[in-house]
Amino acid sequence: MSDFITVLRETCPTPVLDATKWKRIGGDPHTVNLNAYLSKDGSKIMGTWICTPGKFEVNYEKWEYCHFLDGYCIITPEGEPPLHLKAGDVFVIEPGMKGTWEVVETVRKYFVFA
Question: Counting Cβ atoms within 10 Å, is residue 7 exposed (0-12), middle (13-18) or buried (19+)?
Fold first, then answer.
């Protein structure tokens, strides 16, 4: 096994239910995290996130890479127009982004926080 490369081919993550730290502000959203990787120092995490419809208030302290596999959501940074994101979209959210994240249709996405 390499000290520099982690192959996740055989990963079988344990589902973590409703683990999001975000404040729910609309609907009754529920989340499932399938965390496939956590760095030794705990500063980086990657996996799959699933969320049912609802709305959250968000405050990003870390950088996040997202690749939507399913669903549709609207992310609205404070003071900016909403962004409509759907299956197939790939995007990055920078630390310091505050606003709302509204899941309109159940979302499934790959994520990396670093």
Answer: exposed
